């Protein structure tokens, strides 16, 4: 079939459905919502059999849904209605949830149900859940709905009448008044639910250091205490704030500027800058001891016999210059440990999306910060590529893009979860890219496929990535099971009788490649192009980066034709 994906943004779920539908040999077009006339023109031109809307902030015009079947993916179970379904579910502490695919009608979320799938909501932020448990359920329900539509004989279930046994709950948008935190009264658990329900968008509006800020994300602090509402410590760019009965870590902030441009979401300490009071930097141990309790950290190393596990988790998958340098130091520590297999990653959400565009945008000189960031990424990738005394596995539990994909490709093996989406390209940001991709990508998929992947700039499903050789293994498991499953496989890899032979062969292959063309040559060639793109004011990169960071439309977007 020809399917038109209609979305307010080509976000993680839209990309995943785009890739999954193409894997099933559907012809998929993408149209960004916002201009009804443009939408109707696109429908007239493309003549889709079906419109599928995985992420919408606006209503589908009557002229469209009255003439063509339009299916909307709603992040709530049947009968749930309203624009803040997932936000409210997280803030209320719901653990059982679901995703519904329903037909667009005049009343929002009230059309007949074509399919739905249940899902669990463990204690993570809304955006993490959206990309993982909710996305898994959304894809399952959407693919079933598409299959039912294609059959031509399925009758969707109306959400009313004698055949409807569900409960209808229509709830308004979750406003900042309902998200507000009372630091003196709300217990830590309630504070965490509010922060997690708004972690990526829209944030929780609050007063901090004499200004208005949106707080993004939250993690429990088990030991530190202070006067409710006060900042009591920093850790790796996050700030710790006391609650009525404990404390929470807040990784990111965004300044509210009434009447001015929207603030940029940044690491909390960076955002506050000179407003941040003198606070102790309370570092978390990279390698916790047996007596250490649960401590939040964005970097953690552990060992299980001959296997080392270096896990990292940066908000939104973005890696600033500081993130890269800290991860490089942790990697060097891990690479000096007595192990034969080192697993890099293994978390349930983003692996990496490459350089930190928000930090770059907010920097006094974005070109200089861009350069510092990409060279720091290159140093990290170089360390992985030149590790020849053990096997390195990149465990990609969530999505990865641009330099984050290339970081994974520096490993000897790449394992990813079945729900992961990979974007192995830089083109949509107007960049050539570095991270040694001109060496690692053709080495894996061949020169022709590497050129196609970077030129087409389309999302790649885990299944397709495995088929073309971009990854070595796909783990068909849920987000919570990915880490343990990868750890089990890493143990088997270390125990394999051929492990030492593979390590020796890897070292020999690296030496042979170095004689053919040194790694430094790849890096110098890539960075020569990147330097021009960073330091030329007219370079498309600067306008594209700014539009991306500030959520403004740009003339170019995701490929609308596949």
Automatic annotation (TrEMBL):
Superkingdom in the source lineage: Bacteria
Domain Formyl transferase N-terminal: 36-137
SUPFAM superfamilies registered for this protein in UniProt: ClpP/crotonase, FMT C-terminal domain-like, Formyltransferase
A GO MF label: catalytic activity
Family annotation (Gene3D superfamilies): 2-enoyl-CoA Hydratase, Chain A, domain 1, 3.40.50.12230
Matching InterPro entries: ClpP/crotonase-like_dom_sf, Enoyl-CoA_hydra/iso, Formyl_trans_C, Formyl_transf_N, Formyl_transf_N_sf, Formyl_transferase-like_C_sf, HoxX-like, NiFe-hyd_mat_HypX/HoxX
Signal peptide (from-to): none
Matches recorded under Pfam families: ECH_1 (PF00378), Formyl_trans_C (PF02911), Formyl_trans_N (PF00551)
Domain Formyl transferase C-terminal residues, every copy: 174-255
PANTHER family, alphabetized: HYDROGENASE MATURATION FACTOR HOXX
Descriptive protein name: Hydrogenase maturation protein
Originating species: Kitasatospora xanthocidica
High-level lineage: Bacteria, Bacillati, Actinomycetota, Actinomycetes, Kitasatosporales
């Amino acid at each position: 079939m020809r399917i038109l994906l209609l979305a307010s943004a080509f976000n993680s779920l839209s990309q995943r459905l785009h890739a999954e539908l193409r894997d099933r040999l559907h012809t998929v077009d993408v149209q960004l919502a916002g201009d009804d006339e443009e939408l109707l023109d696109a429908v007239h031109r493309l003549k889709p059999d079906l419109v599928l809307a995985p992420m919408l902030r606006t209503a589908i015009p009557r002229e469209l849904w009255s003439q063509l079947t339009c299916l909307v993916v709603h992040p709530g179970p049947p009968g749930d209605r309203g624009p803040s379904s997932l936000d409210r579910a997280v803030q209320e502490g719901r653990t059982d949830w679901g995703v519904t695919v329903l037909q667009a009608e005049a009343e929002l979320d009230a059309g007949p149900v074509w399919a739905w799938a249940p899902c669990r909501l463990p204690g993570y932020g809304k955006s993490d859940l959206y990309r993982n448990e909710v996305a898994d359920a959304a894809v399952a329900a959407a693919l079933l709905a598409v299959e039912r539509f294609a059959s031509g004989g399925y009758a969707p279930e109306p959400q009313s009448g004698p055949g409807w046994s569900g409960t209808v709950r229509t709830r308004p948008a979750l406003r900042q008044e309902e998200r507000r935190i009372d630091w003196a009264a709300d217990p830590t658990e309630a504070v965490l639910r509010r922060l997690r329900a708004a972690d990526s968008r829209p944030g929780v509006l609050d007063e901090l250091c004499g200004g208005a800020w949106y707080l993004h994300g939250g993690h429990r602090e088990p030991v530190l205490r202070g006067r409710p509402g006060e900042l009591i410590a920093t850790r790796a760019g996050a700030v710790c704030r006391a609650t009525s009965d404990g404390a929470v870590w807040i990784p990111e902030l965004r300044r509210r500027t009434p009447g001015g441009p929207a603030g940029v979401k940044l690491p909390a300490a960076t955002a506050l800058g000179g407003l941040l009071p003198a606070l102790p930097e309370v570092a978390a141990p990279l390698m916790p001891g047996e007596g250490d309790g649960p401590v939040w950290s964005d970097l953690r190393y552990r060992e299980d016999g001959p296997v080392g596990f270096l896990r990292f988790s940066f908000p939104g998958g973005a890696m600033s210059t500081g993130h890269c340098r800290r991860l490089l130091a942790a990697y060097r520590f891990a690479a000096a440990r007595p192990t034969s297999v080192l697993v890099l990653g293994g978390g349930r959400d983003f692996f990496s999306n490459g350089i930190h565009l928000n930090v770059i945008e907010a920097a006094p000189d974005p070109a200089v910060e861009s350069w510092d960031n990409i060279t720091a990424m290159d140093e990290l990738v170089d360390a992985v590529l030149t590790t020849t005394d053990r096997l390195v596995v990149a465990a990609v539990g969530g999505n990865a893009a641009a330099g984050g994909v290339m970081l994974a490709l520096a490993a000897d093996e790449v394992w990813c979860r079945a729900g992961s989406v990979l974007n192995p390209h830089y083109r949509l940001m107007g960049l050539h890219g570095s991270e040694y991709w001109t060496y690692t990508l053709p080495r894996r998929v061949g020169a022709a496929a590497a050129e196609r992947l970077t030129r087409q700039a389309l999302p790649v499903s885990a299944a397709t990535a495995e088929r073309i050789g971009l990854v070595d293994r796909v783990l068909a498991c849920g987000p919570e099971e990915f880490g343990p499953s990868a750890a089990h496989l890493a143990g088997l890899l270390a125990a394999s009788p051929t492990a030492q032979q593979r390590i020796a062969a890897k070292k020999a292959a690296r030496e042979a490649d170095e004689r053919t063309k040194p790694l430094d040559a790849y890096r110098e060639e890539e960075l020569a192009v990147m330097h021009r793109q960073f330091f030329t004011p007219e370079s498309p990169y600067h306008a594209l980066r700014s539009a991306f960071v500030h959520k403004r439309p740009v003339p170019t977007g995701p490929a609308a034709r596949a």
